[in-house]
Design brief:
The structure is a single chain. Helices cover about 40% and strands about 20% of the residues. The chain has 9 helices and 8 strands. It has one domain: TIM Barrel (Alpha-Beta Barrel), CATH 3.20.20.10. Strand 5, helix 6 and strand 6 form a beta-alpha-beta unit. It has an 8-stranded parallel beta sheet. The chain has about 230 residues and is an alpha/beta fold.
């Protein structure tokens, strides 16, 4: 991909706007998170200058080094990768939103660290919607118990759900997983839990963001389509 980052983002924004309107929403209702794994600080700054809403990092060490180098310029920072329990203390308080909370034990650890810092940490619950054994995440039927737990942890604020569905070339198979996630999101939105506010449904990446938005996503995490091939 030889286009500039600004051109890439302009094209992505146009696609997002069209999908948003088709799904009955305004273009501004959908957040664009630039997934910046392995990207240098200069490219992240270019993406921010070109209008992405937030930056998402997958690796704790890399994120900390970039943050120390001023990569994010005060923009919202999300953690979107797998979380090792021994790295929780480095993520809490640094990230505006931790998207990839995939277990009750992680939720409790994040809550304890946030409480020790005197802050409230925003999180999303990661759903293993494809029931893939190699992936982290809460199974759909476990979500109720996680929500009950979240309602008891005052140092966290649960703002929604995140998913990385299985990759299929078949549109209908992938769309089905997005539809499952949207139904979960809507079902939870109708219930009342302390510390839980269903604001974000984070799903859709470079090869699937239009499809995800059409299915109800309001936050997409895009790397290659923003920055070009690694």
């Amino acid at each position: 991909m030889n286009n500039s980052i600004a051109e890439n983002i302009k094209r992505i924004r146009a696609d997002m706007a069209e999908a948003a309107i088709k799904s009955g929403r305004a273009p501004g209702d959908i957040a664009l998170v630039a997934a910046s794994k392995t990207q240098p600080i200069e490219k992240i700054r270019q993406a921010l200058a070109s209008g992405v809403d937030a930056v998402g990092e997958n690796r704790v060490q890399e994120m900390c080094e970039k943050e120390a180098g001023g990569a994010y310029l005060g923009a919202p920072l999300h953690f979107i990768g797998h979380i090792q329990t021994n790295k929780v203390s480095r993520i809490v308080g640094l990230c505006d939103l931790i998207e990839s909370v995939g277990s009750a034990s992680l939720l409790e650890l994040i809550g304890k660290k946030a409480a020790s810092l005197g802050i409230v940490q925003n999180v999303l619950i990661e759903i293993n919607v494809g029931r893939e054994p190699q992936k982290s995440g809460v199974l759909p039927e476990q979500l109720g118990a996680i929500l009950e737990l979240a309602s008891q942890i005052k140092a966290i604020k649960l703002l929604g759900l995140m998913a990385i569905p299985p990759v299929y070339s078949n549109f209908d198979k992938n769309s089905n997983y997005f539809d499952i996630m949207f139904k979960l999101f809507i079902d939870i939105s109708r219930k009342k839990y302390d510390n839980v506010s269903m604001q974000f449904l984070s799903m859709g990446m470079s090869d699937s963001y239009v499809e995800a938005i059409l299915a109800g996503s309001n936050m997409v995490r895009i790397g290659v389509a923003v920055f070009g091939s690694r």
